[in-house]
Design a protein that fits this description.
By secondary structure, this protein is of the alpha/beta class. The chain has a domain of about 90 residues: 3-Layer(aba) Sandwich (Oxidized Rhodanese, domain 1), CATH 3.40.250. The chain contains four helices and seven strands, in the order H-E-E-E-E-H-H-E-H-E-E. It has a five-stranded mixed beta sheet. The chain has a two-stranded parallel ribbon with strand order 1-7. Strand 3 and strand 4 form a beta hairpin. Helix 3 runs parallel beside helix 4. The radius of gyration is 27 Å and the shape is elongated. About 20% of the residues are buried.
């Protein structure tokens, strides 16, 4: 005689899981899916050239545009992950144009640049980097910060 796990007979005590027993599991699964979808992002993880680099926070939830990435760290200036110059030297330099960045930026193709500045970087240096990117031919220059929703 073959025994069925989900039989509908009333001959004895229930032998399998009832629909009522599955309801809490479905609720937990729904909550798990909502939590994963809320924290999931199509953006790649943020990698900075300086390990201790902390970006300022923003309330904007839309991802930044893709383009040439310029990092302004506490110790150095980077173009697409390659060190281009010293941050401390250019923060104190008299000129407004950062010539160490100007050459590498002119070699990159595209019209958009993304500037990621350390939260402790001097704003005078960040302004110089923004000006240098515009002078190098980039029409759209974005300043990136971390979103509280992505944390």
């Amino acid at each position: 005689m073959k025994r069925r796990l989900f039989s509908g007979s009333t001959a004895g005590p229930p032998q399998g899981l009832s629909t009522g027993a599955l309801a809490p599991m479905v609720d937990l699964f729904t909550l798990l899916i909502v939590a994963v979808l809320r924290t999931w992002s199509a953006e790649p993880p943020l990698e900075t050239p300086e390990g201790e680099m902390q970006l300022p926070l923003t309330r904007e939830e839309t991802p930044p545009e893709r383009g040439v990435v310029i990092d302004v760290g506490v110790d150095g200036l980077y173009v697409d992950g390659w060190r281009a110059g010293s941050a401390s030297y250019w923060a104190d330099a008299e000129g407004a144009l950062v010539t160490d960045l100007y050459g590498p930026l002119q070699q990159r193709a595209g019209d958009s640049a993304v500037v990621r500045a350390h939260a402790d970087a001097p704003w005078r240096l960040v302004g110089k980097v923004l000006l240098t990117a515009q002078q190098a031919g980039f029409e759209r220059v974005s300043l990136v910060a971390e979103s509280r929703a992505s944390l």
